[in-house]
UniProtKB/TrEMBL annotation, chain A:
Origin species: Thiorhodococcus minor
Cellular component annotations (GO), alphabetically ordered: plasma membrane
Organism taxonomic ancestry: Bacteria, Pseudomonadati, Pseudomonadota, Gammaproteobacteria, Chromatiales
One Pfam family cited in the UniProt record for this chain: UPF0014
Keyword vocabulary terms for this entry: Membrane, Transmembrane, Transmembrane helix
Family per record: Belongs to the UPF0014 family.
Protein name: Iron export ABC transporter permease subunit FetB
Automatic annotation (TrEMBL), chain B:
Keyword RNA-binding in annotation: no
Keywords in alphabetical order: ATP-binding, Nucleotide-binding
Record-given protein name: ATP-binding cassette domain-containing protein
InterPro entries given in the database record: AAA+_ATPase, ABC_transporter-like_ATP-bd, P-loop_NTPase
Coiled-coil features, chain-numbered ranges: none
Nucleotide-binding as UniProt keyword: yes
Pfam family, one: ABC_tran
Residues in the signal sequence: none
Amino acid sequence: MTMIHLSPWDLGIASILIFLLAGMSWRLRLGVERRVLIAASRSAVQLTLVGMVLKLLFAQTNLALIGLMALVMLSVAGFEVMQRQKRRYRGGWGYGIGAFSMFLSSFSVTLMALTVVIGVEPWYQPQYLIPLLGMMLGNTMNGVAIALDNLTRQAWESRGKIEARLLGGQSWETAIQDIRRDALRSGLIPIVNAMSTAGLVSLPGMMTGQILAGSPPMEAAKYQLLIMFLISGGTGLGSMVAVWLGSRRLFDDRQRLRLDRLADGSKF
Amino acid sequence: MAALRLKAISHPLIRPLDLDIDAGELVFLSGPSGSGKSLLLRAIADLDPHQGEVWLGSEARSALAPPIWRRRVGLLPAEPFWWGDAVGEHLPHGVMDAATTQDRIGGWLGILGFERDVLDWEVARLSTGERQRLALIRLLAQGPEALLLDEATANLDPANRDQAERLIDDYRRTATAAVLWVSHDPVQRQRLGSRAYTILDGALVPEP
């Protein structure tokens, strides 16, 4: 099977749907036509740029350039995690906890996949590294953002209960353990759900892409399975690191609950 | 058992203050609302960042692990929170296993007019007054050597208030615990008779 190339004309036809949607929004006064158009143009520009950058990267296999690209991806993901917090850690922590835990989980799992599982030569071959890392980051980003948001939100709301436990002579780890467990669970639920319905409701995005691009379905299914396992491991590891660091940061060295280390994110 | 001594305790509302409470002594504290009474108690229990040092007998707070300090210097907040479903879950781990502590807690429950099965009750179904009285028992079950009470009897009717006062007084005598009690009730202060201070403009002023 070979890949059927899309012409600009093909994409133009598909984009009529976007204009139709915007028109409908205008006609029904939904008020989202501007946002639809802006988002669609953004995705067009971003994907074209990424396509061009990847073309350049693939042609060179230069470790420094690939590292730079990975760094950009990580910093955007870290920013996104911070954006999604209702209550953010003040100072560098708001950015640092999310970015560090994603770095630790996504990079290590991607590295493992490249060297041990897929066995690419050299391991940093961008055609494999960049999409894999992107998928890892995108999904750990979700898990980490949800878990951290849950942690800080619940800690904020349960101040009285946490302090009551501290006053009862419990350590900070015991006092926050229920909230911690809950936050971690909430971070893992999306990926667990995705795994259990994979293929039944819809084909996962990557598998769809591979099949459209001409891969045999069984090969696509195997790759999808590999990716899902990697993503689950990465999301679990990332959420755990984030929740551990985040809950530690909520207490100081005298085991006091320090909600003053959180800022109301909606103010920014 | 041990005296409670505050050395240069200060936080944003309170200028550095010293206070010595002997073992088994009761000291009342009052002051206009917002004067920092509750914050002072929280500072002593080490719940908020602040300056100063507190001694329990010959032991400095900074030398003790925070959970141990908070167990030994027990704070009863004005609004006690409950984190579990049943009352009994909030008792320190293992106290209901030993027969001696079981009897003690049973006795306290009796003084405050509860049956022992109250430990199986759901917290959500308790009234405000019941919660306040049970929070006192929960605190005493920790076996604190000093007590910090924030409006411990404010929500109680006179009969229950008298019983709670009696329980606190009994505990203070038998455990020779130092007690610092924030109370707005001048009659209560007269009734229990003790040293009393007011917080005015961030300073401790002895009451006549």
